[in-house]
Amino acid sequence: MDSDSLDVVDQRLLEALQLDGRAPFSRIARRLEVSERTVARRYQRLCGRGLRIVGQPVAARLGLVRWLLRLRCTPDAAGAIAEALARRADTSWVTLASGGTELCCAVNTRSADERNALLLRKLPRTPHVLSVSAHCMLRMFAGEASTWHATRFGPVPPVPAADSGTPATAPLTLDATDRTLFTELARDGRATLPELSAATRRSPSSVQRHLDRLRTEGALGISVDFDPQLLGYHMPTQLWLNVAPAHLRTVGETLATHPAIAFAAAVTGTSNLVASGIFRTPADLYDYIDQHIGPLPGIQTIETAPTLQEVKRLAPALP
Q1: Angstrom distance (rounded) from CA 317 to CA 269
Q2: Residue 58: which residues within 8 A CB-CB, separation 6 or more?
Q3: If you write DSSP's letter for every residue of 277-294 in order, what string do you get?
Q4: Rounded CA gap, 60 and 110, in Å?
């Protein structure tokens, strides 16, 4: 299925869902200037093509530390290792790149013991893993609200999140209702209040208060998951940048405004800024580097790693 099968209404619906994945169809219909029935019908059709609206926990706001891992594996084992990592509840963004020998994934850890169990014991002892580099995410500039936002209609305004450099606060305390909501919204980010009320055994008004608190406090993000290839974007690429410290914030915040960038974060390691870009063709990737990356101040080196396969894009709810 190619991008020609998605018309302007489909693409504008995807854009509206990125602005608010739980927005009522009536509000989206007014924005798109079509009927509510049309929005509902188009939404169901997109779901049949892989669209998912998913509630995602915001790691830092819940006391988790987020790591980005780069593994180099033997070509015959990289796929199996990627699948094994994808089955873990604490991972997301599992991708294969560099001829199928490099694997990247994001992982959330609750404690030093959890971190060390994976990074110091599990992965180094995994057969056919040649090397592991772990990069702690220091500040997320883009990526909490969606898995992509490169649409022909321009950039979607980034949604502020606790990961994005706001002053440190104590992790939000979750009760049983909150945890049930995370589980249900991981299945369907647009689950209705009556459905969530039945799952939590709380009144709809109580559920709404919990949802408002989680979203206002920056603990819950509503993510839009849709294969960018269905919109004609066939060149997803990770960009590893080495940026002079004095320009790191400026470059990160600038990347977050670019429609092509689905994720950007300051990280530890030799490359101190990593971004995921979504491009239509290799020529578009070149133009982006030439016209948008090149003029930015303080960039010393850049490494590009085209994604060959996305094994996992979104993580499930908290365990």
Answers
A1: 28
A2: 144, 161, 162, 163, 218, 219, 220, 221
A3: EEESSHHHHHHHIIIIIT
A4: 10
| pLDDT tens-digit map of 184-241 | 999 999 999 999 999 999 999 999 999 999 999 999 989 888 888 888 899 999 999 9
CA 300 to each of CA 241, 251, 259: distance values in angstroms, whole numbers, following the listed order: 8, 12, 23
pTM of the model: 0.84
Hunting for tokens 């509902």 — which residue is that?
40
For residue 274, the tally of other CB atoms under 10 A from its CB is 23
Distance separating alpha carbons of residues 260 and 287, to the nearest angstrom: 12
Question: In the chain, what are the domains?
Answer: 1-49 (1.10.10.10), 60-152+227-312 (3.30.70.920)
The 10 Å CB-count burial string (b at 16+, else e) for 75-111 is eebbeebbeebbebebbbbbbbbbebbbbbbbbbbee
